[in-house]
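Cont'd.
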Amino acid sequence: MPQRGVGASIPRKEDDRFMRGRGQYVADIQLPGMWNAAFVRSPHAHARIKSIRPPQGYADRFFTAADLTDIKTFHCSPNFPGFKHSDFQILSQVGGKARFVGDPVAVVVAPTRAEAEDLVQATSIDYEVLAPVMVAEQALKGGGPYVHDHWGDNVYIQTEKTVGEFEALTKQAKHKVTRDYVMHRQSPMTMEPRGLLASYDSRLDELTVYMSHQMPHPMQTGISQMLGIDHNRVRVICPDVGGGFGLKVYLEVETLVIVSLARRLKRPVRWIQDRYEHLVGDSNTREHSYRFTMHADDQGKVLAVDGEVIVNVGAYSTWPWPAGVEGEIAVGNFTGPYDTRAFKAKHISIATNKPPSGPFRGVTRPLNCYISEVTMDAVARVVGRTPEAVRFENLVKPEQMPYTSITKKHMDSGNYPETLRRALKLVDVDKVRARQKAGERDGRRVGLGIACFYEQTAYGTGPMGYAGWGIELVPGHEIATIKLTPDGGVWVSVGIHSHGQGLETTLAQVASEILTVDPDRIAIRYGDTATAYTGTGTYASRSMVVAGGAVAKSARLLIEPIKKIGAHLLQCDVGDVELKNGEVVGPRGSVPFAAVGRAFYLHPEELPPDFGAATLTATGGHLDKVHGGVFANAAHVAVVAVDPDTGFVELLDYGIVFDCGRMVNPLIVYGQVYGALAQGIGNALYEESEYDAHGNPTSVTLADYIIPGATEMPEVKIQHMESPSPYSEFGMKGIGENGCIGPPAAIANAISDAFRDLGVEVNETPATPRRVYAAIQKAKARSGR
Amino acid sequence: MKPVAFDYKRPASLDEALALIKGNDGSTKLLAGGQSLGPMLNLRMVQPTLIVDVARLKELVGVAETKDGVTVGAAVRHAAIEDGEVPDVANGLLRRVAGGIAYRAVRNRGTIGGSLSHADPAGDWAPVMMALDAVVVARGGAGARDIPAGRFVQGPLATALEADEIAQSVRIPRLSPDAKWGQVKLCRKPGEFAESLAVVVIDRKRRAIRAVVTSPRHAPTYLAGTAQLIDGLKGWSADAEQKIKDAVAADLKASKLVGDDPYRLQIHRVTVARAVREALS
């Protein structure tokens, strides 16, 4: 049998159903007597509600905060000193406020969604429109308006720190290179928007909640806490989920409302988010502005950095990922993959009349990479060296590994300079430079840009992990339950979720590696709190390492009982048998696992006499050995052609060399990198949630919010390097965010490089044609050309 | 994102369709390919009480070629034009334009008459029909009337059609064999609305020199001064390019359509200049 365990590029098991359209999403589930909900959403960014008139004749199908009093007020606050609470508003009521366009004010139910939308239209709400707070300058200027009136300002949290010999090192540095950066809001774009279906089971006295979500168990806990229902009477099922990317990791108002309605109305209630609601009313993400400085010597070695970040969090802090965390992650990655020994940082998280922000694939890392890499290119220009030369000057060297940065990031392994050398070779940097020199016949300019970074994956607990922020829910461990079935197959249950990661295949490969059973005979089950013991879900590049580690541990626990039964059936000593191709092999013969299963489940009289109360099931956990997780890394190189007359950018080539340690399934890993790259290109060139001055969103359909498609993807060159982590099973590292961290930086640097002679600098994402053209004009005006 | 409840009728003849929209106060909508109406219904941007499906009316799907040109039924789909099922009397321009509309899935259903009647400023057909001096044939209760393409589109989502009229066909004059054209569409990505779309037609034999430009922000507009300049051009040069760009700027300034947005003005200058270059090369 060809090797199909860890390291094998086998096709994804789940694709059979996906490719045939046989997946099952929340919207595919129909329950008898099910009704549909629609939300009445604020058309104003900031308003007080003066009066509410329910749809005439349908007052019994219309609910505001005044009705749904079973939902507790909730807020999410980290234990940062001085943090201000923002009670997450569960709908509104007369006298209450609406804090962004799309803020749910009331809810209606009807047999169909169309009828529910009719009722929304028939509702009349009188608003007192208030001046909105939309951007940082406005939020910080003082004197109001305030998103949360009782705060007296619009600041969730402000922190400052200086670490290392900052003053001494900055004095030593000959060059001080400072740049300002603006990263505009994005919407984590999933193919399937969110969806909910809640149903009360009178037989079990249990609420079953179907959700399109990445974290079944934390949602079970959240629903139990916020609605005051015993934990053991809430069951959360997350069926097939059409993409998460961080959109589906928080407890939303809609969830609590739908569950409350199902309990109240004693009938199944469903809400399927539409694309307008997704773009306007759901969490969007990472609106940051930075002032960032590198203090470098005349070789471009960066001795210290200092930076200020302002995070526009929006109206509320989300549960369980509070406001402030993004800013702290940004600060915690200020020195990047470079050997820089001092930093100074200031972080301000502000409230505005925009939807709350949630995490999105990579969280702040694409932004960290951006400010670091774009400034590094500026340093290169100042000291007169090539972009690659200053990076080789600064990157942490392989002989320094493991390396703990001044921001306490523990880089466990890898050869960072080598990834860059290989990435440059991948796109043939010399050829690109020659082409650049020759010029293009169509008048466009060619540029090459680099981005180097680490990817912190499989975050752990402890002070340098999530526990350091004092948040409501600290991930770190995962548990897997495994059993050998009567017919010799394997059943595994895990508390993570898989929504594009291919974990039904890769976790089976892990179990297969240890138990020697073919992955096709291993069923991976997830997404149901009734069948999985516990878990914290899938996000932050964690599930392969953490759940994979748990599967490995639980599988190992099965070896002994299988061997024992097999040896007994083979009439030999347990020390003389081994597991091979799904059989117990002894000196004189072998028995298939099916015989072992048969003995245990159907004919216990055949078990060895000393088997006792042993079983063919086991539960094993994985707890991180290091708080900060395991560190993957990569170098990205982009080659672009820019039209100087229009600012339009074409990606000519893109090379990635990444290192995620041991790959469980290279085919899936490469797919992950490729898919993430598409999102990174979206971040770099296309995606932006725009608002006008009155706070109205203007990116409200996929005609206005542009995401890259097949035609925007270049022929990508992807190559792997393997530096196993010393801390994880098989040396695995996470890979989910690697492809999307580099593109905004690499592409911006490539655009600037195309106009190196003019000194063009792109410092805003996305680099739209309008912005690129403006940057070129600005540089032309400055250089007098 | 579900439409309001509405009635749906699929009449068997154009006359029957006209009877259904007689006295239409705007609450009846015509459905052809549905590529714009569908999303607008779902977003409740339109809330009709009746939808009249004209996609299969035989009076709307015919194609008739004469020595002077071709008459294309309003319900002829973009894909049919793209695939050459409609005689391209514009020396290849019709097929080029059809093949560049959104995605093939849209082109399989979207119709030329629907696109013109919807009058989305980013629509592909209106500027082309203007540049070709085409005529929209409108049918109402009182009979048929001709509306020149240049007067048909009156602004974003506004046409010269009355609420009880149906665009029946488009009459496209035949270009001279040596007539040239250029068409440049600047999109953030294929299938998106064009940031700027320019069409230039140079048919000296028929004394028809046209330059038209459009964008999602304003209706398509003739650039008269630019066309005049093109008429006098001997060939392409850097000097010619600059003159064209200046003329475009002057025309647009006079039209007051672009406002004081320098980027919009810049890309219009670029697309028109490139369309001229394509036509001259």
